[in-house]
Amino acid sequence: MVRYPMLHVFALIFIISSSEAKNNVDKNGYIIYCPCMGRFGNQVDQFFGTLNFAKTLNRTLVLPTWIKYDLFSDKPIFVPFDHYFMLEPLNVFYKVMLIKDFMHLAPKAWPLSKRYTFCHSSRNFESKGYPNDCNPKEGSPFGPFWDNVDVNFTAGSRFYSPLQFYPATSEDNLFELKKLKFLWDTKFPPPDYPVLAFVGAPGSFPVKISDVHLHGLLIWSQQISQMVDKHFFDLYGVRRYEYIGLHLRNGLDWKLTCQHVGQTDQLFSSSQCLGENNEFGQLTAQICFPTQELIVSQLRNVLQNSPNITNIFIASDKNHMILFLQANFKDMNIYKLESEDPQLDLYILARAYHFIGNCVSSFSAFVKRERDIENLPTSFWGVHHLTRAINLFHQEL
Fold it and tell me: Are residues 262 and 137 in the same domain?
């Protein structure tokens, strides 16, 4: 299995570099943003693009809190970045710092006279009497996110159009990257704009193929690993890699999303199994929202090729179909977490003997990328081939 190389050696480097970052202002500037689009899978996709963008501009990336949404409340929940993931691999790859640490440095690094917010063009709320600018705190989770870290944009807004976050060509060659940096530095020189604070993430959703390899930098924190042991592996006596993992995306919002099938060649993360140019197939209703009959048939085929597997773990946004699947697979032990926790679901699904996910879902895409690192098999509902693992580890890692 491939793990992030020499992680124990990187710990000392991380301690030194993170200590320096906390106390010294980066003269090249910073990037900070609100991960305000969608749930966790979407936020992760955009994080990869943002990390690469920060590296291109040679600005320190301020790691935001993740935004979580309670099923029973409209208020967003803010989770520190390092609650989910270790910082060491990221800090070895590039200069990053937690948002709480940056805010301690902000009086020196980000004077009130230079606290601009950045957006492509006006977020127009003129009907509410707001000015024609970025209005970075209008709406949720935008306002609560910035209020949570006590940021007010006292210098106003700046529009970055027509600048882009990625090179103009599909080739991410050195010349194009330097050109991109030159354009941003020319319009927003670091001495005048020490912090580029974006209303939304300066990264693509779905994640670009050129950014996929960065998933190898996301190593779950010890806290998450211990929670999974407590709430699943130790609780039920199930071992890693000795169960089938299923992701069932079947909530009402997803049903409405799947109504767009037939109107577009790609939807959300569907390129992960169909290919960027649909070279592996076309999007169908069964791929997006599989029927119960298809789920049973496909799961049965996987079990026939999975000797000695007697456990199934299910993650779902709505209906785990436990009773239905128990009726169809009487010899199987079928589990789900007692309390919903998407991050624990992701951890468990990534360590299944075989994973069946939803091709369109960014949640399933997260699992697939993590499994690709360890060369573990993934298949998708309604797709009749094993998806090809992507080589996540480029030389730059």
Answer: no
CA angle 146, 151, 155 (to 5 degrees): 120
Q: Which residue in 37, 10, 51 sits closest to 213, CA to CA?
A: 51
Angstrom distance (rounded) from CA 7 to CA 136: 38
> Helix 99-109 and helix 7-23: axis angle, to 10°?
30
Question: 165 and 111, same structural domain?
Answer: yes
Q: Say if 89 falls within a structural domain.
A: yes
Report the distance separating Cα 364 and Cα 207, nearest Å: 13
Q: Hey, what amino acid is at 103?
A: M
Which residue among 161, 183, 213 closes a domain? 213
First-last CA distance in the chain: 17
Q: CB of 227 within 8 A of CB of 298?
A: no
pTM, to two decimals: 0.90
Instruction: List, as one string, the DSSP characters of 124-181.
Output: --GGGT--SS--TTSSTTHHHHHHHTT---TTEEEE-TT--SS-SSS---HHHHHHHH
Residue ranges making up the domain that contains 336:
221-380
Question: Alpha-carbon distance 129 to 353, whole Å?
Answer: 56
Retrieve residue 213's tokens: 């390899």
**Contact (CB, 8 A) for 353 and 299:** no
Is the same domain home to 207 and 228? no
Distances (CA, A) of 329 to 297, 299, 321, 323: 11, 10, 12, 10
Among candidates 331, 293, 363, which has minimal Cα distance to 39?
Answer: 363
Task: For residue range 254-307, list pLDDT tens digits in order.
Answer: 999 999 999 999 999 999 999 989 999 999 999 999 999 999 999 999 999 998
Same domain for 187 and 288, yes or no, is no
Q: Tell me whether residue 388 is in a domain.
A: no
Whether residue 188 sits in one domain with residue 239: no
- Share of residues in the chain with pLDDT > 90 (%): 82
